[in-house]
Amino acid sequence: MPQLSQRISTLNGDGSDGWGVFYRARELKAQGHDIIELTIGEHDIGTDPSILAAMDRAAHAGHTGYAMVPGTDDLRREIAQRLSQRTGTPTTADNILVTPGGQSALFAAHMAVLEPGDSALYIDPFYATYPGTIRAASGIPVSLATRARDAFLPDADMLRKTALQHGAKSLLINTPNNPTGMIYPRDTLDEIAKVCRDQDMWLMSDEVYDTQIWEGAHISPRSLPDMAERTLVIGSMSKSHAMTGSRIGWIAAPEQVIERLIDLATNTTYGVPGYIQDAALFALTAGPELEAQVAAPFRRRRDAALQVLNNQTAVQVIPSRGAMYLMIDIRATGLSGEAFAYRLLEEHRIAVMPGESFGSAAAGHLRIALTTDDDLLLDALDRLCRFAARLIAEKTL
To answer: pTM for the complete prediction?
Structure first.
């Protein structure tokens, strides 16, 4: 057989990525075991029936053929209006490309700005696909480690040094953040923006959790001075409207960037099905009430989970101000996040993601997805804490 390309063969790098815990949990579940799954960011409520009804109407009305590759005019205008209202940054339909989900938008954004061999920065901890997405665009992924004691916020001096050292072409950030739940404050974003301007870097801002804000406010860096011309914003209907399987998202960027990205879409995805775009348009025009309804379970579970976690001392919780996750520090047990997660699964049938799944900066941590029934979640957290306390006690014997 002819040899595969280096690009595809090296997409995910080397070594364990911690996802073995997730696959083991699914294997046990298939064998009939009851598993409390707190792993991936998949809503347990499903897509709202009104959105599915809109999708059904659009399909039966005949919107099942080729749709406009950049996105339907109505949907692009609605997304532009949404961003203008939320960020105060003037946005038109010409600034928007509709994509098959946020992941496709991440890939397209890096394809737009990277030459083969360009260095592209991203913050560690990170969403699992970030380095692979950069490699897929023939870039060289360079991580910028953060620290738990700094709430995993990036340090501006380290960012500047890393950018200079590698001659970085771009930086990818994610706020509200997966996996940490942090929201980048204005001063952090101002520092990031200054480095990008000073080093003439592109900024990719993954904002798919912008409707899940528990404390503080979400600020899009595209709204900061002189940043609209160098920022590509990734958005998605997956988290805001529980439309994960519908695969619909967008990129907001300068018009000349969108023009070139339309060329890319024409030669790759050829757009998004029209009936799905119509359902997304219905969902966006349904107003903030529907978004609040989708977000409500995660706010409630986050508050209840913090009550459990703040009433014990075996593990420490990282401040969570947004998104559907909690990050827990289990280093006092002496185990890695991966080792702890495997034992928790095998001994207690509770599945969580080890921090190592999201980069070396999160080693010794766990990511908890708040995506199951409230009572099951709180029971799992209580058992997790008691398990950690037992491990700490055994270590001191």
So the answer is: 0.95
